[in-house]
Write a structure and sequence with these properties.
Number of strands: 13
Distance between the termini: 27 Å
Mean pLDDT: 94
Length: 244
Amino acid sequence: MRSTSDEKGLKKIYEGKAKILYSIPGDDERIIAYFKDDATAYNGKKKGTILRKGEYNNSISSSIFTLLKEKGIESHFIEKLSGKEMLVYRLKMLPVELVVRNVAAGSLAKKMDVEEGIKLLSPVVEIYFKSDELGDPMINETYIGAFDLGNPADVEKAKQIALKVNDVLKDFFDGNGLILVDYKLEFGLLKGDVVLADEITPDTMRLWDKVTLEKVDKDRFRRDLGGVEEAYKRVYDITSKIKQ
């Protein structure tokens, strides 16, 4: 399906698994992000489509970025343009992504040989080098300077922001019947300052029902649990309470 940006003849500058980025003629500071209905898992080995996923994720991410800005946490988000399109600042992206974990699940549960669902005594922050070819390997802070992956101070700032995001989102979802299990964040530089980028959606978060521990995120697609669209809609309905 063609996006509105395609129909306007805007230049596609990047297409990933979940989004397409378009440049705006005469505007070097802003770009348009289009959210796709495509779904992938296991580094692209599993592929599919989730009905209305692009619409849901655009709205969810727009709402969450709005909430975080109210709490003093800046991002690339400017405004929601349409059902699947968001206007964002053009950033110089950091070559790493951070994963914050509050509960043992997924790869962490396997790595530490514990059952999923064990609440961690404190949040775990993991750093991953963004490389599709290498499978986004986990690294630590010493890699940043050793491999010239950017300014170590920027990565440290990103970690501080990630933990602030954790405080805000844990409280928000807890108040709406969900447990924030873990999530992935990406960052970039806006006029030299580290800010949030990419998206914050059920694609990039694990969310569980507080009572039943039912999964309300992409794990329903990843693990063939069914009810995928319903899970995304539940998060959409909850985050729609945030006034943009």
